[in-house]
Design a protein that fits this description.
Number of domains: 1
Helix content: 10-25%
Order of helices and strands: EEEEEH
Oligomer: single chain
Mean pLDDT: 86
Structural class: alpha+beta
Strand order of the largest sheet: 1-2-3-4-5
Low-confidence stretches: none
């Protein structure tokens, strides 16, 4: 499982593990968890944000309920053993 590190502004670095990724309507989404393979953890759907020219991709947590429902449905169909609530 690929590990990526996020550097929130003014906060300590946070490691996430990528479970799956998809593109919907030209927008990149990744499904990540804070737990290593085989452990229970929290899952988050992150959306790629286009912004300034930079070497690093900027992701934001999907907070809109309608967007979350649509994207989580796609991820659930991609991964049989996962239930996003």
């Amino acid at each position: 499982m690929e590990k990526i590190t996020f550097m929130p502004d003014g906060e300590a670095a946070v490691d996430f593990y990528v479970l799956e990724q998809t593109v919907i309507g030209g927008v990149n989404y990744i499904l990540v968890t804070d737990a290593e393979d085989g452990e229970d953890g929290e899952a988050y759907i992150l959306k790629a944000e286009s912004g300034e020219e930079s070497e690093e991709q900027v992701y934001r947590i999907v907070e809109d309920d309608n967007e979350f429902a649509a994207v989580s449905g796609v991820f659930e169909s991609m991964l049989d053993d996962i239930d996003l609530v």
